[in-house]
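To: structure desk
From: M.T.
Subject: fold request, one chain
Message: Could you run this one when you get a chance? Sequence is below, nothing fancy, just the single chain.
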Amino acid sequence: MRIPVWLASAFCVLAVVYAAPQNRITKPVDNAQRITLRGHMHPKARPEDDRGRVAPSFALSYVTLSLPPSASQQADLDKLLAGQQTPGSPNYHKWLTPEEYALRFGATGSDINQVTTWLKGQGLSIAAVARGRGWIAVNGTAGQIETAFQTEIHEYVVNGETHFANASEPSIPAAFAGVIGQIRGLNNFHARPAQRRPSFLPNYTTSRGSHYLAPDDWATIYDVTPLYAAGINGAGQTIVVAGQTQVNPSDVQTFRASYGLPANNPQLLLVPNSQDPGVSSDDVDEANLDLEWSGAVARNASIVFVYSSDVMQSIQYAIDQNLAPVISSSYGLCEQETPMSDANSFRAWAKQGNAQGITWFEASGDTGGADCGDSQNPGLAVDTPGSVPEITAIGGTEFVEGSGQFWSAVNSSTLASALSYIPETTWNDSAQDGEPSASGGGASIYFPQPSWQTAVGVPPDNARHVPDISLTASADHDGYLVISNGRQEIIGGTSAPTPAFAGLTALLNQYLVSSGSQTTPGVGNMNPGLYSLSQSSIGVFHDITTGNNIVTVPCPHRSPSCVSTPVGYSAGPGYDSATGLGSVDGYALVTRWNAAGSVLPTAKTVITLVSNLNEVSSSEVIFLTATATSSNGVTPTGTVEFQAGGTNLGTANLVGSGGTATATLSLNGSQLPQGGGTITALYTDSSSNSLSASVSVAVSSSGSGSTAKPSIAGLSNGASFKLTYAPGMVLSVFGSQLAPNTASASSVPLPISMAGVAATINGQAAPLYYVSSGQLNIQIPYETQINAPATLTINNNGQITTHQFNVAAAAPGIFTDQNGVVVPNQTGGRGQIITLFITGTGAVTPTVATGAAPSAGTAVSSLPVPVQNTTVTVGNLSAPVEFVGIPAGLVGVTQINYQVPASVAIGPQPVVVNVGGVPSATATLTVTN
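Reply: Done. Structure tokens follow.
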């Protein structure tokens, strides 16, 4: 055997992992064999409101089938998303394009073709196939939809409004199990805007103290004006506002002209192949509010209004087309009245958006702690999609001037009169409005608490809590000025601060790019940064500690079983479920954002210590390895000190990657106290926490070793068996009495001791792949000096031998079978992309700890690659390299995906890998056509 069995088996797996995603539809599509998709019944579509089936010709638009990632793809995606928000991670703020997302997390082209072929066979037309390959949208009649998904579409009259919805759970062919997740568009219970009108219409500054908010008022109160003075005004940035109505651009033009804003017309974009909603009287005010106030804060940003008959459809399209790094929407429904299938779809879109650098904002709702606001669900509830952890939910506050002078007696030329920040309390105007009218907030029933939602005041109940932050939202005190349908309107509710904060985030994106912090705009999921900043940076948040969002949903007439009970939450220090982290100082938020990741409150570092021997004699060598692991993926650095009985035994530097690092110290038993005792490793982490770990070792006169002294006959490259060596390489050691029995490493990181055998090179621990009496396979430490003699020391249970050899910068060797044929792909057609594995590439970047492997889920772009140029030839012709890197799960082994040259001759051909000008020994590939 040239390589250990475990390593050969891993090749078969890795050839799949780093190729294209695998087809999941493997059975014939049989309409008679079906599975039911659960969670699609809308809670509002109740039998008592059912008016029977709609006409078969009734048209349904943009019915969307989600294509969720496989389990392995989902794990990879979650790993990527965490890394994108972790400073120090190679994926930090590295955003994907939709096509890159598709290649890693989308369905395969074959699976999509099979689904679309089936859909067309049901008479449905394909409206869109997602660029990210995460969904397919179709148009068709109710009759076609009913036949395809074996459900019925019925008409429902709810509170005087007519809706349609599926009357039973849909089903799909069993061949599509796991490939099709949810189906949206089977009902039109669409999300509603979260906006409020004042109980009275305030005038301009009056003797009774009534005010309204013009753009410059908001900029003054929330300290955005200094950003404008510094040229941070949204230039070069784009915001998507999502809606479900047509709008008249003249309203935006009037608004901007009235309040001193530069002319900047929004771009209007109807989702292609979707139903045009026309002008919806229920939605046009919301659309104008969102368009005007996102642009009121980000004054020079491009605003794209994406609309369709369903605002969520608009968001879905905007994310898949990657239209902007900021999306603002002020729509929602309470969780209890949202099908789980919809909630899952929202989260899938949000995760794709986050991976592409998109921040999605939603209003937290306007009915306080009782988001449903109706007698069907009068208790505690929160708004979705704002409750999705990958979305930032915006709540509401209200100004409390007290006896302070916060407003000028006259308005400026831009009709503003605010003088400074105004103290805030929780928005709750329910008493004066005569109905629930307060900041939405509380605990999700759908989503667990994400790891980043850690702050003083966050309930330890394992539930996602909203809102995340809040800003002024009262329509009564003081509402936002809006122009809609040619008229001046005063509007409040959490709909108002949501687009305003989206505008502030566009300013943040401009600042990060202009300051050189990043080249591509976008912060992705903003929430981890917000919660980190709340604990690490003073002056960013205004903590709202007074008021509450407690409301009472009144019982309807003739409802004797209904009990009107107040529900909600009170504000308090730190986070609370009424106002979240509080409101923000815009200038401080933008200019201190890069400190958001400097303190990661959920990160913990732990240290462990192991020894290769439990008993040692004074003449034996013992290896001590301390491993430090950080829970946030940032690799620990620094020095570990080793002590015994208070005596310093020595120190070693931590080396590693992916959140794990090791420090190894080798010493003679004579350096330990007679009789032995406890050895302790001491480490101080980046947060100045003192950590320690201990192991017990006995010191004896006879030791624990073998009676036979090991003998080294020779060394070779573990793949080529040539006498060439490089740092990080698999090294084969041949001899006798090298180990008392045979053993192989069963996991990574590799052990530094097996069967009582340990090895060092120049005193640095050399991890073990395989041990036997006649052969050891070990890894040459990456730290080994090149172009200089190296000393190998083998310790077989106390008996020691040494051997010297020279280490070069590169010594590539191709893994082959016993006949010298390349593995795992022994044959390949011309133009085909196939795989081989090598060892001996030398140094890699990013660095990886000796004995360690890249963790599962590491982005392909973040895998360690040789620092020296790597090329492949087949039949002496250049073979284009499609991928090169150390794959997850392997140590010291590099995978290369290469293309067989189109003009190479058919038959056995020589394959050579060249690293930094050093060629490998020749292997053989059979070219088949």
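Reply (cont.): The longest helix spans residues 497-514. Let me know if you need anything else for the meeting.
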